[in-house]
Amino acid sequence: MGTKINGWMDGWIDREMMKSVYDETLPWDTIVNIAKENRSATTEFILLGFGNLHELQFLPFMTVLFIYVIAVSGNMLVVITVLADCSLHTPMYFFLGNLSILEICYISTIVPKMLRTFLTEHEVISLMGCITQLYVFGSLGISECLLLSVMSFDRYLAICHPLNYSAIMNFRACFLLAAGSWAAGFAVPVISIVMVFRLPFFISNDIDHFFCDLMPLLKLLCTGAYKIEVVTFTFSAFVVVVPCVLTLVSYYRIILTISRIPSTTGKKKAFSTCSSHLLIVSIFYGALIIIYGFPIGNQSPGLNKVFSVFYTVLTPTVNPLIYSLRNKEVKDALRRIAMKAIAFRS
């Protein structure tokens, strides 16, 4: 049997659950008042990070710091190369530049706090800081899903409909698709974020993670977690699952088209333009499905953290490496820019 408490939350509180958290010998009204005070008193959270790695502080700290520097430098290099070389002023590289900017913001939202968790037994983050981190992280994640889908659509048009590609994928279309991905990403998480921070938290404010992720936060809620899960899953079906399905459909059509190309050279050239993107999509969506595709009660905090590293740290790092090292046009552009820089200094 539940009880609704008006004026401070929307939803029902389970009496037995609340009594299991607070002193069950206390009267129900007292438990409710304590829960209210606890909610209003929650001004900060404690990020537990990788608790079992504190004794090895230096090694994980330097490893993640090195990866972070590589990720930011690599993505910044891609952005500068796309802007500086006129031969890369095409839709494909316009979207790649957007993806690199997104990755810089994405990894910079998570890693600074993550690095601090390696140096301390726990890292304190304010309530507003937690809200901001959760919102920005969620927004950038959704934007990346949409942007990856847009990039797959761009490759689909280029390979499957090459005669109409220039007419369809003009500058205006590219700008609207990229802007729409960013705008939708920052609009969708608002409802879930508001719902989470309107509900009461348990006495414990320990987040068993290295950043303010949605799933560990839901475990701290006294009530309403199921409702938020339903709302989040519903929105995710539109902004994560639908783009993922569209991406898979695009590559299915691309592979069919490539298989009909008579020459082996033509097949290799066509597939080389999309194989890098397909690899990134596989890593990113694979980690997301493992973490967010199962109920919070069935998730292992340790595995959750490991797979979170894949899409929060490793994906932004391998993006520029894969696109640069596997892409002849980018390597040629980098070579031309390096030669111009040397000539300028001379």
Structural class: mainly alpha
Given as residue ranges, the uncertain stretches (5+ residues, pLDDT < 50) are 1-24
Number of DSSP-assigned strands: 5
Please count the helical segments.
13
Q: What's the helix-strand series?
A: EEHHEHHEHHHHEHHHHH
What share of residues are in beta strands? under 5%
Average pLDDT works out at 77
N-to-C span: 80 Å
Major sheet details: 3 strands, mixed
Helical fraction equals: over 70%
Please tell me how large the radius of gyration is: 23 Å
- Shape type: globular
Spatially, the strands of the biggest sheet line up as 4-3-5
3D architecture notes:
- Helix 11 runs antiparallel to helix 12.
- The strands form two sheets. The protein has a three-stranded mixed β-sheet with strand order 4-3-5.
- Mean pLDDT is 77; it is low at 1-24.
- The protein is built from 13 helices and five strands.
- The longest helix has 35 residues, at 225-259.
- With 346 residues, the chain is mainly alpha-helical.
- Strand 1 and strand 2 (12-14) form a beta hairpin.
